[in-house]
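Lab meeting prep.
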Amino acid sequence: MERFGSQKRPPMSYSHAQLTITKLRVKNQTPILPIGWKRALGRRSEVDDLLARAEMLPQLLAATPYLQHRGRLANGAFLMEIGDVPFHAELRDGALVHFSRGPALMRPWRFALRGDVEAWERFWRPCPPPDFHDILALTKFKRFKLEGDIYPFLSNLLFFKDLFALPRTVEGAP
């Protein structure tokens, strides 16, 4: 037996988003559009760009052999949170074997690195401003929070600093 509303709504199409905006403009109302309307119109928000850069982390690490060698002793799971979007990662011998976006019920992790969207955006600039150049500087100035068992983080500190700074190398960065 199916429940009412158990079906997922299809993503908004370009024509549907344009039609919704046009109807509301004719009625002189400010458009209140559902989530995903910018993506339907082919525009991306800054948060979407940051999340896309974070999702590239496994490919960036795989393309950096010296960093894999530096993290060869790093094992375990960690949580990286951009705003309120969590990313769960599992490291084995310096390689990201699992990297997923979104909340997961009862997913274990050893440490968590949490920060607001603006702090991540500034940290991932090609030339970050002062106080946004390093993870530990961001934790000192309370822009990032480092939680949990930080022993694996500190014992592989250079690896994790370079790992979290990898999205700076992505072309098209602000």
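Slide two material, second protein:
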Amino acid sequence: MANRIMTTHVGSLIRPPKFVEVLHKLENKEPVEPGLYDKTLTQSVADVVRQQAEVGVDIVSDGEFGKGRNWAFYVHGRLSGIGARPLTPEEAKDPLASVGGGRDREAFPEYYAEADKATGLASRLGNRFVCNGPIKYVGQKELQRDIDNLKAAVAKVKVGLFVFMAFCATLFAVLQVADAGSAAADRGLQKEFEAIIAAVIGGCLLTGGFGSVIGAALGALIFGVVQIGIGYTAIDNNWYRVFLGGMLLAAVLFNNYVRRRVALGRA
């Protein structure tokens, strides 16, 4: 369990340019290559999930990409019984009656002239949403598509992490063989313990949920320098594991002390 506040977000994220281009064509009823929308949507979700993971977002989302260009209109593809009709002359005088209406349109007409064109809302102005039949949810297929895209994107991030870890392990093995001039099955014994110590020295928590790659790299550098320094002393090698345990204990206590001071400073 993470010993910190987990981070997430709510709402739409910026659509990639290629995806926006496809959405523009669909909005303008231009011909689109079969399957292009689904293909572009899947790739866009994969990219935005990876970007969220890279910046440290704990609970990622699909950026609401499956909702098209505007969250207010995707309801027409997910619910039955919702339609649109032209405004009556009386309703046209009321800024709150039309689609996307509001008094801010009267206050900022230049902005909305540009925004309506960019978002596709211009083609829907002059209409009013109405209930014209029984309301039922009919978007099961699209919902399952969005769930599948998000799951696939998250799985791809996890696979990428595992592949990178395997690459690092392979690189370490190659460097170790190059240094020793031979290979042995037990040469990496206890190395995981040293890796944990290096990460904790760099600020990572044993409970997980906090730390950075840069911190772990600095911790490995500090640990390596100290380890090499021990070889030039008269300390008995039998005390090496005791020394490692002491370093781990000291790093944990120091990390907790620093975090406690930071928490008190924010209170």
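Talking points for slide two:
The radius of gyration is 29 Å.
The longest strand covers residues 127-137.
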